[in-house]
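for the writeup, i need someone to sanity check this before i put it in the appendix. the sequnce is what the collaborator sent (i think, or maybe the updated version? ugh). structure was predicted straight from it, no edits. if anything looks off just tell me and ill rerun, i have time this weekend
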Amino acid sequence: MDAALIGSLVVLAVIDSTSFGTFLIPIWMMLAPGRLQSARLLVYLATVAVFYLVIGVVLLFGAAVFLDDLRPALESRPFQVAQLVFGIGLLGFALVTGRRRPTGDTEPGRLVRWRERAMTGQASSKALIGLALAAVTLEAATMLPYLAAIGLLGAAALTLPARIAILAGYCVVMILPALVLLAARLGVAERVQPMLVAVNRWMARNAANTTAWVVGILGFLFASDAARQLELFEALSKAI
């Protein structure tokens, strides 16, 4: 496993750590009225991480079954060129989408409903686990960073247990920012509270457009990986 793979996985995990389910809902739970119930938040984050890991393991098993047949095609020059074009296309999409301004300051009704569920301190552990599973399920169709990470792991020359272990580490990194915020909230609440409020407002206001920068980073990773395999960087350095 080379440094490029590790770096790409870390970047993707950090992107995943800022998603609706791994960041915004935990912030709502930390902003809930009354005494902070850290155990509820830990149960929620553990459920999210485990559910992501289960999804990833299932996909890795599927990739392991078909990878040997697909590897020649994935390593072919036409596929690498197509990957480069695809990455550049994602970058272009992100640039165009990112320039659109929010149409208003009102939060989508769905976000309001989810926030009410997250900030209800009397919810049972069963309801909390249900909230975590629902959040991950809702994001399943758009978990582009996670799918990209699974694709990178599937293509790497690693054993299946090693891939699962790395994927488990990925899931830990994915919930790490929320855990850091929780520790700060418990230690220096008066300093962290204003920041949590500001982040909550920003993420809720820009919820419709946050996909753009995620897609842009993915496009860069796809394009740079294809350029490396096509040895475009070496050709460029020689030309210069």
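Residues 36 and 186 are 8 Å apart (CA to CA). Residues 3-75+105-207 form one domain.
thx in advance!!
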